[in-house]
Amino acid sequence: MTTAFRELRRAALLAMLGLMVLSRAAGAQSAPVEGVAIELRPDKRIYQLGEPVNLEVRIANRSSRAVAIPAAADVWVGHVEVFIASRSGDYAQYTGPGWGLHDVIGGGTRILEQGQEWTTPAVILYNHGLETRHLSPAARADLRGRLLDSGFAFRSPGAYRIKARLHGSGFTDVTESDAVEIVVTQPQGIDRTVWNALNSSPHAAYFLHTGGPKAHPLAATSLTTVEMLEQLASAYPSSRYAEGIRNRLDAFERTIERLRDRGLVTQ
């Protein structure tokens, strides 16, 4: 599947999400997935702007008998959704790269025995927002605030609440987790200089999340992003961001090497 086709498919799916988000929000009031609890566990409680938030999504059978959950109870297929709110604000849906895009032929279920748990990861960094220019003003107004904009999910320091929803196999039953609270701090010193550069780039967040650009690896925007990240890692090696930047650049170089080996790129 080409990058262009994946992006076209994503655009169509995100448009569908725009139509579904209100009904899904209402669906959260329906009966929960019977006997099942969902819990979020962040890898820490205090983050700096621009740092990934690594979540463990834990789905547990709290009943006295075996229960069934979707076989793909994860963010990739879309049975697990994540929502973010500031301490005093309303929740908005977060969508990471590739979330909700995996196809599962036939669906299927996973059986959890009494007391058994299923865990799956979710990383919050780049949010893939919904393009709303094609929607009516009324539709845009309905969606405003319910979905995050594209770019870094956390752009301002402060306390945030994160919760998750587990949708049953037919997306009719919904179980919601309790909220967990994290604190996102303002970078200081050289970290603030690096953060300001990252936050000003429309493509840096995606690259840092995935280890690659949104566009073709040799597109002008991709090369500009790579050059900026290389300069930041070189100029500020002691920054808290430097190691993560270098790791992502290394991952990108490995991707380029694989493409060269397959004859797909010549540079």
Estimate the strand proportion.
Answer: 25-35%
Residue-averaged pLDDT, rounded? 85
- Gyration radius (Cα, Å) is 20 Å
CATH class call of the largest domain: Mainly Beta
Uncertain segments are 1-8, 11-30
Describe this entry's structure for a reader:
The protein has 267 residues and is α+β, with helices and mostly antiparallel strands. It has two domains: 3-185, Immunoglobulin-like; 190-261, no CATH class. Helices cover 32% and strands 25% of the residues. The chain has six helices and 13 strands. The protein has helices spanning 3-27, 137-143, 190-199, 204-210, 220-235, 242-261, and strands at residues 36-42, 46-48, 53-61, 67-70, 80-86, 92-94, 109-112, 117-124, 126-127, 151-152, 158-167, 174-176, 180-185. Strands 2, 5, 6, 11, 12 and 13 form a six-stranded mixed beta sheet that branches. Strands 1-3-8 form a three-stranded antiparallel beta sheet, with no helix packed on it. The protein has a two-stranded antiparallel ribbon with strand order 4-7. The two termini are 22 Å apart.
